[in-house]
Structures are given as C-alpha cells and as structure tokens.
Hints:
Layout: H1 15-26, E1 30-40, E2 47-53, E3 56-57, E4 69-74, H2 84-97, H3 120-133, E5 143-149, E6 154-160, H4 163-175, E7 178-179, E8 185-188, H5 192-227, E9 236-240, E10 242-249, E11 252-259, E12 261-263, E13 269-272, E14 280-285, E15 294-296, H6 305-311, H7 314-320, H8 345-350, E16 356-368
Antiparallel strand pairs: 1-2, 2-11, 3-8, 4-6, 4-9, 5-6, 5-16, 7-8, 10-11, 12-15, 13-14, 14-16
Helix pairs in contact: 2-5, 3-4, 4-5
Amino acid sequence: MNHSEREFLAEALPPDVARAIRRLRRTAGVYGVAVMPDVHLSEDVCVGVVTATHDLLLPDAVGGDIGCGMTGIRLTEEPLSLGSSAALEILTALQRRVPIRKHATKRDLPSSLETELSDPALDRALSRDGRVQLGTLGRGNHFVELQRDEAGALFAMIHSGSRSLGRVIRAHHRERANVTKTGIRALSADSDEGRAYLHDVAFARRYAQHNRDLIAGELTEIIRDTLQIDVDTPDRISSDHNHVQQETHDALSLYVHRKGAQSAAQGERGVIPGSMGTASYHVVGRAHAPSFCSASHGAGRALSRSAARRVVTRERFQEDTKTVFFDRRIAHRLREEAPAAYKDIRKVIRAQRKLVRVSRVLHPILSFKGA
C-alpha cells in the first residue's frame, strides 16, 4: 500500500511535519503510519498520527497524556434556551467544583484503580499527584463545553485525560527504551519492560476515563440544580485518543499507537471537537482499513501556542467567540485556544469522509477552560 493511501489530509503537509512522518516510517519495526487531517507537529511523533508496529512499543507515539479523550452527553431531549444568568451560574459552579489543577485534599481511588503500577516510583506519583488531580480538568486544550444541536437540545462535551500521571508514566518508560537508528525510542512488546509499559498505559486510560466521569457527574448535578430539570444521561459517547493497543489489521496482529487520533471501528461512536467558536461533531466509524480504523481527534492546531499568542489579537479572539459564554476576564490568556489557532474543522471533517459518518453537528454556547 502506498503511503499516500494512508494519508487523509485537509491541506498539504508542512515540511517539518512531513520530515517527522518520514522519520517515523523509516523506524525499524514500524509496519505502517496513517496520517489524520488534524496532524500537527509535536515532540518526536506528530499529533494526529496512527503508528502500527509488529512487536515494538513507542512511548512517543502515544505521548504523555495517556488516555486523554472525549465524553459527549445529551443533557436534554427538548429544545432549551440558556440565558446569560443561567450560563453565569453554571460557569461559576464549574469553577468552584471542577478545579483546573488539583483538589485541596486527596481523593479516594475507585476499585478499578487499585492495581499497582509497574514501579514504586509510579505508585508514589499516583499517591502524591494522582489522588489530588482525579476529577480535575487540566490546562491547554482541555475543556468542558455546553452545546446545542440543530434542534436546540442541550449537550455537553468534556475533554480531559490522565493529568500529570500520564506524563510521569511516559517519562519513566521512555528512559528504559532503546534508541532506534532514527532516534525514536522503542520497547520490545515481548519483554518485561514492554509488558510493564502496557500495564501502565491501561491503568492511565482507566484513570483518564474515571477523571472524565467525575467531571461529568459534577456537570450534570450543576445543570440539574441550575436549570431545575431532570438530567438523564445513560447514552453517552466516550472515546480516548492517546493510547496503544493490540489490534488485527491486514490479517496481522499489530500494536496500534494513536497519538491525537481515535479508534473508528465499524459503528464505533466518537467525538470530534472544533474549537471554542466553531462546531463539533458526533461521528460513527466506518472501519476504513488504510487508516487502521482511526479518525482525527479534533480540528488540529494551525498555529503553535507561541505563534497564536503573537498573531491572534484579543479583539480578534473576542470577535470569533462572541456567541460563546466563557470567563472573558482571562480572554487574553486564552488566545492560544482561539478559533484562528485551529484548522478549519469543516475541511478536517470532509477530509475523513471515508473514516467516519457524521451523526450530529453541535454548536458551542458555553466553554469552561483554564488559562
């Protein structure tokens, strides 16, 4: 299969991104690389890339925020108008109940997280940081967003991950990995070190999912109390986009690494966010084989964070988000998350028509983010 058949691009690849992908493809043990339309430069392995290997595990092809993902929830079935007074009350409650960084005291871990990690140093990090960060949002592009579908029903979208725990796990195993000829670090899947990494990745994914579940619980209580409505959310979409797992593709058992990409198996539901001022999408996977049954995890950055701070003015940011309720006191610090810092989500969706089918279009009405 030609490399181009595994590329689903919304625009031509920048030279530095193309070089990074060529380097990854040349790495011994890499079976194939699929490039999603939200691809952009990142350390060692680009975001928006799916890497399939025969028997190697590449911590940098997963990244540090292991298990980071999206939760989509329908809050109301009927159309609902959200006034500025209610929006302010909801935002204020989120700021009080969902910390950006950490809780003041340690939280109990659920039974699903009682398994020990592979090294005592990681267990100490979990006890020290993981227990105060469980149920917290994180900075950067993590957010809680309220949205309205085409009929006016209210939805929520939550984007968060494994917080500092994922970064500690990545750093720990990266130090124990071998350096390949291309400079990308690798672990043998059939080794004690490889099995330890897979164990810790699975743990971080469970942690990240529970983190989003706790945030969702706080949000639904806030909505119920503020709007005085019954909120029933049994039907929710959950997908993560930083992971590695063993899958069968091209009749081969492969280790599929997704960094800023989500699984899109046949009928599998996912969430593809735009930005603070643009539409987001609920999608259904089409199991497109050349993509290793994957799809993008969002719009993807068009500008780096530093470039966005230089280029995007506060006035431009305010104009592009004028229909969205958020804490405008920190607008100058949120410019790196401005719509202008991201690719056109419509082009990104069109570029992956073979990968997913759009089931719902959502428009933002409230955004809770940390700066």
